[in-house]
């Protein structure tokens, strides 16, 4: 058996995290850098990515982060991002498809356009980027050390909760199923494909519900484990799946939600 340090090391690995300047993407990128990886973060706001890369590097991690612009919401943006990645590396050990958008409105007001926008980024963009980066993933893959893909799903794609985010919840259910399909298809290529299904974490997307301590306390009270997620929860899960420790895991949708996905809402035969 290898040492614990080797089991969780990402030294020498190259990773891409889309949407890596904020929220869960930044948490994942920080974990990768802490484990020794070279990490590229990309989002529509390239300046923000460059700033965040410098901030993470300033923490003195063994890995390094570089940030630049990349849009996964349309074909032109995807093509430009793929070209940029190919200019920066000849192999890609880790791809984290984190970029995503949401849309929330009451049922009676939910617009038709909210479906195309959300599905374009969360599903079509994720699929197309993964497909187009396959040559780089193949170049890094081996039977002993597979290349890794992690897709960002959501507890809202697992449990029947809409909360006005109908297209978002449906898109994340699609991500979970697509993850399983790609895991099956890529296994022979020595590429693992897994997904995170997070519950509540602090991010730009959840600012409406976690924007101040009182709001966080209120949300935490609805979670079985009594708290919202922390950056370490994302970083730890990311390193596990991307390091040697997770090399035999594929097709999994990992619930990072403090138990929200197993809540049933009532106990049929409870005497309490």
List the topology elements:
Elements: H1 4-7, E1 14-18, H2 23-34, E2 38-43, H3 46-57, E3 64-69, H4 75-88, E4 94-97, H5 113-132, H6 134-140, E5 147-152, H7 166-186, E6 191-198, H8 207-210, H9 213-220, H10 231-242, E7 253-256
Parallel strand pairs: 1-2, 1-4, 2-3, 4-5, 5-6, 6-7
Helix pairs in contact: 2-10, 4-5, 5-7
* Domain tally: 1
Main sheet characteristics: 7 strands, parallel
Q: Radius of gyration, Cα only, in angstroms?
A: 18 Å
Our measurement of the CA-to-CA distance between the termini, rounded to an integer number of angstroms, reads: 48 Å
> Portion of residues in helices?
40-55%
Structural class: alpha/beta
CATH homology group: NAD(P)-binding Rossmann-like Domain
**How would you spell out the order of helices and strands?**
HEHEHEHEHHEHEHHHE
- Overall residue-averaged pLDDT value: 94
Shape descriptor: globular
Strand order of the main beta sheet, please?
A: 3-2-1-4-5-6-7
Q: Work out the strand percent.
A: 5-15%
* Number of β-strand runs: 7
- The name CATH uses for the topology is Rossmann fold
Q: In DSSP terms, counting alpha (H) and pi (I) runs of 4 or more, how many helices? A: 10
CATH class: Alpha Beta
CATH architecture classification = 3-Layer(aba) Sandwich
Stretches with pLDDT under 50, minimum 5 residues? none
Structure keywords:
single chain; 272 residues; alpha/beta; seven-stranded parallel beta sheet; 7 strands; globular
The gist of it:
With 272 residues, the protein is α/β, with parallel strands linked by helices.
What would your notes on this structure say?
This protein is of the alpha/beta class. It has a single domain (about 5-260), classed as NAD(P)-binding Rossmann-like Domain (Rossmann fold, 3-Layer(aba) Sandwich), CATH 3.40.50. About 40% of the residues lie in helices and about 15% in strands. It has ten helices and seven strands. The protein has helices spanning about 5, 25-35, 45-55, 75-90, 115-130, 135-140, 165-185, 205-210, 215-220, 230-240, and strands at about 15-20, 40-45, 65-70, 95, 145-150, 190-200, 255. It has a seven-stranded parallel beta sheet, with helices on both faces. The chain starts with a helix and ends in a 16-residue tail after the last strand. The mean pLDDT is about 95.
């Amino acid at each position: 058996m290898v040492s614990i340090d080797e089991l969780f090391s990402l030294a020498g690995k190259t990773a891409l995290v889309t949407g890596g300047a904020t929220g869960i993407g930044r948490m994942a990128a920080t974990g990768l850098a802490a484990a020794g990886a070279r990490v590229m973060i990309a989002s529509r706001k390239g300046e923000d990515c460059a700033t965040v890369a410098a901030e993470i590097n300033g923490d003195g991690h063994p890995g390094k982060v570089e940030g630049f612009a990349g849009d996964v919401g349309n074909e032109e943006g995807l093509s430009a991002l793929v070209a940029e990645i190919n200019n920066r590396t000849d192999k890609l050990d880790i791809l984290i498809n984190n970029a995503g958008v949401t849309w929330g409105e009451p049922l009676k007001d939910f617009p038709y356009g909210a479906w195309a926008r959300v599905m374009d980024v969360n599903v079509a963009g994720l699929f197309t980027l993964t497909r187009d980066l396959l040559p780089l993933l193949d170049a890094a893959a081996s039977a002993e050390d597979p290349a890794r893909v992690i897709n960002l799903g959501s507890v809202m794609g697992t449990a029947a909760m809409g909360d006005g985010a109908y297209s978002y919840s449906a898109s994340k259910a699609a991500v979970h199923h697509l993850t399983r399909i790609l895991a099956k298809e890529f296994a022979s290529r020595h590429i693992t494909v897994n997904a995170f299904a997070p519950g509540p974490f602090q991010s730009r997307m959840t600012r409406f519900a976690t924007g101040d301590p009182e709001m966080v306390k209120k949300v935490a009270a609805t979670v079985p484990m009594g708290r919202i997620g922390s950056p370490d929860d994302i970083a730890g899960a990311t390193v596990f799946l991307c390091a040697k420790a997770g090399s035999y895991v594929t097709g999994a949708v990992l619930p990072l939600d403090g138990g929200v996905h197993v809540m049933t809402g009532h106990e049929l035969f409870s005497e309490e």
